[in-house]
Write a structure and sequence with these properties.
single chain, 2 strands, 108 residues, mainly alpha, 44% helix
């Protein structure tokens, strides 16, 4: 999905200094993605993964709940190569990405 926030900063770099700003950056990016029809977000950056998954709940008060699962690129590459989902650490995400895989009948 092409959306305005797809290359915007996730806010990870300012989490310690300005926690609210970081949450707002995540909330805005996730809200735009959700409004454009995204069912999940994929990022190659581990820090973006942490921020986008971790701050959605904090951002919900201002931007509304998005509950968009965030995948880290190596997880989906491994899954595509046949590594079982239960070995990819998906259960450690705050927003459970297994729901998207189940809805798409990719896992049981």
């Amino acid at each position: 999905i092409d959306y305005a926030g797809k290359t915007r900063c996730c806010g990870f770099h300012i989490q310690l200094e300005k926690d609210g700003t970081a949450a707002s950056m995540v909330g805005q990016n996730m809200r735009i993605a959700k409004d454009k029809g995204a069912e999940a977000v994929l990022t190659p950056c581990p820090l973006c993964h942490l921020a986008l998954d971790g701050y959605q709940q904090d951002a919900a008060a201002r931007w509304g709940r998005t509950d968009l699962p965030v995948f880290h690129l190596p997880q989906l590459v491994a899954f595509a190569l046949g590594i079982p989902a239960q070995k990819l650490g998906l259960n450690k995400h705050l927003i459970d990405p297994r729901t998207v895989l189940t809805e798409r009948e990719l896992i049981a």
